[in-house]
Amino acid sequence: MFFRTKPTTIPTPEASLPGRTAEMPVAPDHFVNGASLKGPYPTESETIYFGLGCFWGAERLFWTLPGVVVTAVGYQGGHTPNPSYEEVCSGRTGHTEAVKVVYDPKVISLETLLRTFWEEHDPTQGMRQGNDVGTQYRSAIYTTTPEQAEIVSRSKAAYENALREKGLGPITTEIGSAGPFFYAETYHQQYLAKNPNGYCGLNGTGVSCPIGLGVAAE
Fold first, then answer.
1. Above pLDDT 90, what percent of the chain?
2. Domain holding 156: CATH number?
C-alpha cells in the first residue's frame, strides 16, 4: 500500500516487536453482506487463509464469489501478537497481509478458490507484489485441514507447471497450516467497498490453468 522499500527478511521471534494481549477493535459484521465477521459460522463451512499482497484488493476478489460466507482481513504468519497495521508495515512482526475466507464447500470448491488465488496475483515474486515490497506482501496459503493441504499441494504443482511452460519462475508462495490470525483494524475490513476508488496493487500473471487444477465446471 506504500511505495517504499521495506525489509524483505522475516525477523526472528526474538527480533520481533512485542505486540499486545488486547485484540484490535473490529466491527462485528461484514460491511458488504452483513455476515458475522468472527462467527459463529455455518457448521458446514470451512476456512482457509490467503495472502496475495495488499489485502484490500485481495479481499474483494473473494467476497464476490458465490459460496463464500464471509471474508476478513488480518495479519498472519508472523510472531507479534495482535499487531497494529503500522507495526506490520515496519517489517518487524513477520506477518503477511492475509484474507480469511469462510466458504461453503457444497457451493464453491476449494479448487475454484485456488484458481482465483493463483491467477489474480503473481506468486513468483518472493517478498513483494508488484510495487509493494516487503514481507507483509508475500504470497501465502494457510490451510485448516489435511484435506485442504492435499488439494493445495496438487494445485501448486499444476500451476507451477503452467508457469514453467510460459517461461516464468518458480512459485515462492508460503504454504503451511494456519497459525494465529489477527484481525486488522475495522477501517481495513472490506476497504474497497467503503472506498471504491481506493488503491489495489494486485497484478496477476495472466496465466490460467483450469485443467491442471482439476476444476470442474460449476
1. 85
2. 3.30.1060.10
